[in-house]
Design brief:
Blueprint (H helix, E strand, L loop, with lengths): L2 H48 L6 H45 L11
Helix pairs in contact: 1-2
């Protein structure tokens, strides 16, 4: 592989690395929101069970939906985040290989 091809692939890998980092950050935010939904649903169910809140079918359905929806979002985004992390590690490793293969010169050296 010539040096220009390697530089082009490095640029593509860097763009992919940024994209994967954004995916991981997005998943982190959704996982946090799903944990909050699960906690809110469980607290509402417990409040009804203990008798702190009067039983209302609509609020119970909402609490159950929050718990189940939170579990689904948590699982889905955890899986996506793990896959993105694996792809990120692979892209970073490939980028490091390409950088090592390029004959780089220090900035202060004379070009003769």
């Amino acid at each position: 592989m010539d040096e220009d091809d390697a530089r082009e692939e490095i640029a593509q890998l860097e763009a992919r690395i940024e994209e994967l980092a954004d995916v991981i950050e997005s998943c982190r935010k959704v996982i946090l929101a799903s944990k909050a939904a699960i906690a809110a649903g469980v607290l509402l169910i417990l409040a009804v069970a203990i008798g702190l809140i009067r039983f209302d079918p609509l609020s119970m359905i909402g609490a159950l939906a929050a718990v189940l929806g939170g579990i689904v979002l948590f699982g889905s985004n955890t899986s996506t985040s793990q896959q993105a992390r694996a792809a990120l590690r692979a892209a970073e490793a490939r980028r490091a290989e390409l950088i090592d293969a390029i004959d780089l010169r220090p900035v202060g050296d004379d070009i003769r």
